[in-house]
């Protein structure tokens, strides 16, 4: 049995613990309140309304993942023009440390969780299309849009990934006059598309008079990530968004031929030297010094290497990672295989000048044979069956998203 003194001491200790716990809870609550006030003051200072941002975030469609097992979660742009978004950092930090149940019940920031709205399939505005010649092209377009929409709904899952909105739109070019957003997919007609955008924007009178260097290095066109957050959301919600894709294997071979079979002052010293050094047995000094003469098999070894000596490049990056087709709801899906008719139909949709037609000319190495299915087969002969299968696996999502036929491997 405890004596009276022991009981009194025990009660005093318990009271102290309760006081300590209460103080700790008040301290945590005060810290959260302070962080919220800091964010509120910062947002007032920058003129950005957080509630408006969240409402716009909630309107964004859900993203189909790049691995079939994840979803993209947008917490907004955590970094914008070099300024840290304190609220995004705090939210991501707290959310990552809580279980899903605690996120919903305990976190005061839970209302800024990921967005889970299915991608909406909006009807195209076809009021500007003139003539009946576009019936078949329009029918094909609707099938592509419906297919991608169904694919994205089917392959969503419960796991979540976080990404930055600014990163999602970093490959999208803006043409404000005709309210066009175009996501650049290299080796799928992107050079001529940027020429067309320059003409639409009044920067040139003809697409045929714009040089390759002006297209790619002139910085005449703005990208969507150069706008503020309001500008990004407004354009995503109101502009006509287009993407043009190509059979993944053809696009890959085309990129290799362009960058490694012709003189190139960037790809040879940066990629070529690293590839030859790592994958060519007993490479001679000239090859190691210049990086010229990379073989297709060596290039594929680099592509499939999980520890690449140099990083990826947009010319052979998957479209699913360039344009995020299940998160950004593209209104128009063109294909390189039907590039001319798709492009000219799109120009009708956005009320482009009647005299503007999509250019037919080959942007570079015009004397070379175009990369066709037959040309691809010749290159694939250099690879083992296992390597061909691994390339298909690498571009698996691109094949599925855009309904391309899997190659015979």
TrEMBL record:
A GO cellular-component term linked to this record: Golgi membrane
Bilayer topology annotation: Single-pass type II membrane protein
Keyword set, alphabetical order: Carbohydrate metabolism, Glycoprotein, Golgi apparatus, Membrane, Signal-anchor, Transferase, Transmembrane, Transmembrane helix
Record GO terms (molecular function): sulfotransferase activity
Primary residence: Golgi
TM annotation in the entry: 20-41
Domain of life of the native organism: Eukaryota
Localization annotation: Golgi apparatus membrane
GO biological process: carbohydrate biosynthetic process; proteoglycan biosynthetic process
EC number from the UniProt entry: 2.8.2.-
Top-level enzyme category: transferase
One Pfam family cited in the UniProt record for this chain: Sulfotransfer_2
Family: Belongs to the sulfotransferase 2 family.
Name the UniProt record assigns to this protein: Carbohydrate sulfotransferase
């Amino acid at each position: 049995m405890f004596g009276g003194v022991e009981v009194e001491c025990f009660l005093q200790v318990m009271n102290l613990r309760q006081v300590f716990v209460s103080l700790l809870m008040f301290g945590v609550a005060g810290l959260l309140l302070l962080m919220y006030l800091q964010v509120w003051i910062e947002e007032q200072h920058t003129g950005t309304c957080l509630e408006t941002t969240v409402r716009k975030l909630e309107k964004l469609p859900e993203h189909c993942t790049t691995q079939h097992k994840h979803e993209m979660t947008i917490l907004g742009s955590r970094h914008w023009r070099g300024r840290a978004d304190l609220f995004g950092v705090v939210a991501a930090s707290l959310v990552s440390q809580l279980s899903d149940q605690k996120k919903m019940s305990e976190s005061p920031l839970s209302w800024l969780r990921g967005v889970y709205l299915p991608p909406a399939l909006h009807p195209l505005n076809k009021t500007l299309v003139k003539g009946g010649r576009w019936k078949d092209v329009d029918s094909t377009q609707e099938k592509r849009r419906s297919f991608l929409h169904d694919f994205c709904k089917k392959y969503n899952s419960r796991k979540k990934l976080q990404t930055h909105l600014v990163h999602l739109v970093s490959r999208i070019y803006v043409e404000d006059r005709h309210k066009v957003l175009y996501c650049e997919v290299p080796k799928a007609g992107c050079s001529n598309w940027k020429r067309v955008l320059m003409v639409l924007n009044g920067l040139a009178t003809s697409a045929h008079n714009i040089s390759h260097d002006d297209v790619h290095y002139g910085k005449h066109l703005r990208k969507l990530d150069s706008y503020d957050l309001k500008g990004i959301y407004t354009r995503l919600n109101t502009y006509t968004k287009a993407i043009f894709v190509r059979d993944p294997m053809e696009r890959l071979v085309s990129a290799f031929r362009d960058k490694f079979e012709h003189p190139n002052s960037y790809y040879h010293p940066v990629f070529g030297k690293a590839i030859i050094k790592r994958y060519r047995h007993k490479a001679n000094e000239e090859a190691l010094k210049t990086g010229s003469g990379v073989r297709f098999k060596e290039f594929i070894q680099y592509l499939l290497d999980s520890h690449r000596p140099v990083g990826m490049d947009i010319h052979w990056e998957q479209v699913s990672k360039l344009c995020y087709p299940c998160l950004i709801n593209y209104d128009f899906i063109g294909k390189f295989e039907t590039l001319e008719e798709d492009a000219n139909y799109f120009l009708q949709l956005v009320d482009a000048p009647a005299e503007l037609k999509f250019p037919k000319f080959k942007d570079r190495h015009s004397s070379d044979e175009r990369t066709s299915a037959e040309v691809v087969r010749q290159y694939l002969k250099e690879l083992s069956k296992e390597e061909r299968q691994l390339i298909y696996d690498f571009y698996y999502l691109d094949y599925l998203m855009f309904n391309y036929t899997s190659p015979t491997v």
